[in-house]
Structures
1.
Amino acid sequence: MKGAVELQRKIYEGGIVACEAEMEEKMSMNHYMPTRLITGKGCVKKSLEEWKRIGDRLLIVTGRNSARACGALEDVEEALKANGQKWTLYDKIGQNPKLEDCMEAAKMATEWGAEGVVGIGGGSPLDAAKCIAVLAANPGMTREQLYGLAWKNSPLKIAAVGTTAGTGSEVTKVSVITTDGRKKSFHHDGIYPLLAFGDAGYTMTLPEQFTRSTAVDAMAHCVESYFSKAADGLSRNFAVAGICLLLEVFKKIQKSGCAAMTYEDREKCYEASIYGGLAINKTGTCFPHTMGYLLTEEYGIPHGTACAVFLPEFYAYNQMAAPGLAEKFLQDIHAGKEEWISLVESMTPECRVSIPEEKIAKAHGRWENNNSIMKCQGEMTADMADDILRRILR
Ligand SMILES: [Fe+2]
């Protein structure tokens, strides 16, 4: 025990904040998540009272087709209609949402007098909804003010309805938005969704490629979080729970493809994505995500796949930097090294890009003083990141 431990706890709406410096060494479970998470079949339509908490006038934010195609948009509209809530729709969010689109949607929200923003979709519409909620509450805000967290007013209320099983954005305070061709994130307690709905039924119609790329995104969140220097006992438990669920499903997909997935398998992936979100809330991600952004920006590789191709290198790095932890990881997930890596690789179609030396040199500065790189075990350097790129992308 570290001296006289005085554990101060403050109970907030849905979470507990504990003072890290005063925690016992063995007890390490700092957590804050003010999001009301509601899951299960039909949860969107069954939660009318909850929907009333988001405001009377709303902006719904979606991608171009998927929210409608999977039935989620219809369910949300039905719930809002039953409550007499009014909404308008912005349905132009693409993959890797752009800041300009968020600004356009925020203008629409302001003109409509929106009190809340409802994101429906995968990571892109959900992250965009968070950004729009900030921009709409702060008309005229510049990009620098947005990313610098210089917000005068609190963001509008946010609800998130997930339609993929990977991002975990429903339960995080992170928004990743593309600006000037670069994916850039901001983190703030003010963008935790007030409400998050997780109905795995919406993921049943996801095509094979999206199912795989989103599932490996969840895997990357869990694995990166586990090995982060910022991890604690609670976040590692979240990460392990997510990985074990995913490995069960990956075994099935490796054998029979995504077409063989049952509703229960889809639920396992969804549950794992939530665990991943809860884990990275504490830790953020490590180098697979930072370096994966480069592959998405330069080669259009889907986000989850772009991150997951770095996982074997990430594990090898941790074997070198933190051998005891790397060993414990295998015990925790009840799998051998070759087994879990081959399952991850079976989910990620081979990354067939080669990256020229000029691009490696140009990206070098990105790895310096980068938060996610600094959170890796040991002392990871930008030169090490260059070498990892060379090994993977040749
Ligand atoms: Fe991710």
2.
Amino acid sequence: MRNGTSWLPLALLVTCVADASDVGSDAYLSGMPKVELHLHLEGSIDADTVVEITNRNELGYFTTVEEIEESLANRPPGLMGFLEHHMKLQNVMQNRQDFYDATFSLARNLHDNNIVYADLFFDPQAHTSRGISFEELFEGIDAARRDAEEAFGVTINLIMCINRERSVESAFEMLDQAYPFRDRIIGLGMDSGPEYGNPPVKFAEVYARAREEGYFLTGHHDVDVRDSLKHIRQSLEIIGMDRIDHGLNASDDPELMAELVRRDMCLTGSPVKRTTDPALQDVDRIVTLDNAGVCVSLNTDDPEEFETGYLTNMLVMFQDASGYSDADMTRLMWNAFRSIWLPEPEKKRFMTQLRDYAIAHDVDWDNVVRR
Ligand SMILES: [Zn+2]
């Protein structure tokens, strides 16, 4: 729970007092209509569903919620330590029903967070390499997100991701497998790791073909990896991505920030916190980007694998850590809404929900859309 404003530096406190209607409240953030654009299916399967699937499939690991919690608590630091636990989780899913259950239970959690629209990443190669066909995994995910839209009113679009450590041939193979289903997949992304040695330009031809086949393009640019700024520039200038996932090192480079603003390029920030982290990651970077006018949004990445959890909780934690007002928090959410990949009328329908909510709660709209 939040602890009011007692820890805030004096200058920030004065700002908040000067505009009392903007002082943050958990209720405001909780009720806010939300968009999540950076969310991995494989990192978002709630523990109860994991246990149900592992026991059904007699997998012999992650058979209790406690076992999952222990694995999370004891994973090594860094991206590769993260991936060790993450890969065990993704291997839980064996058949269409498992993918269905994982997606449907996630959609329920999204709805509980008042998320009205989400783009969901899935990693086909992590599953096809285990002998599961693209059709099997995709039909499970797709059926669940359609049923969830009917059940909860949450719209979910799908982004398939290249595992960047795998070969270019393997990425092309994934595109081939996805071809019959391409009308039901909104974008192509890139994740996993390590990032250094597997830069965006490695997959330039794959991205080019994906563009021809009608996909929107995005990709991970993890924070503080070697050559991060170079990779972001590759994605802008060579690949022509439509969004940048993470990419928060741009805050180190004023010229790059200006270029992102010029292109109106949106970053999907993810200020997660592990139980072992002293604080939320990258808050200062996100504030720097926001102050420079860069379109940056807040996203949970893998809500079942971080203390930040799902989006409402992350927003509350971020507001505490940044001292942001409700209008500032609404601006970060507005950034997510305006970077949705939907035709303008559909996108507007979502954007109106946030605008109406903010105005009904007396949030200073000029501050939300200050640029
Ligand atoms: Zn991610």
